[in-house]
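Lab notebook, bench 4. Still working through the backlog of constructs that have no structural model yet. Next entry is a single chain of 181 residues. Request: give me the structure tokens for it.
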Amino acid sequence: MQKLTISFIAMLGLATASATTAGSAHMFSFTSIEGQPLSLADYRGKAVLVVNTASRCGFTHQYAGLQTLWETYRDRGLVVLGVPSNDFGAQEPGSETEIKEFCMVNFSIDFPMTEKQVVSGANAHPFYQWSGEQLGVLSKPKWNFYKILLDPDGKAVDWFASTTGPDADKLITAIESVLPS
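Model written out:
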């Protein structure tokens, strides 16, 4: 009986570890805008702000604020991750090369970016499907520049609509609350 109990407890421990992994953004990967593998597991131990972006949107000016966030908090453990998407109003029609050039020339962006992704609907990148399950239906991007905040363990902790700019107090407060100590 004691062996059975120990085996059962060990199995519970494995199930818990597996559930923790399944609940982490660290299981997802993208391809960088330069065409290289980009795993969210590489950001383990850092807070990550994932933002679906577009170059021809009324919110495109938020790139400047996102770059400022990156410059202000990267040494404290924040990664800003841009995810270009053409899902809303076809406002990101360019190639990865064109997107990267636009971001560098107009906003001096040097935070990591992915190649263009589908972020909404049934064909959304698995990260966006997962984050919607974690944070609820309202967290699913409904326009460009939705923001999803991950803690250093890869847990989705909050989301912010397009209208919440990178300098908004509630976004800054949320970022500061999940920065690694």
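Notes after review: Residues 2-22 form the longest helix (21 residues). Residues 1-21 have pLDDT under 50 and may be disordered. Flag for follow-up if needed.
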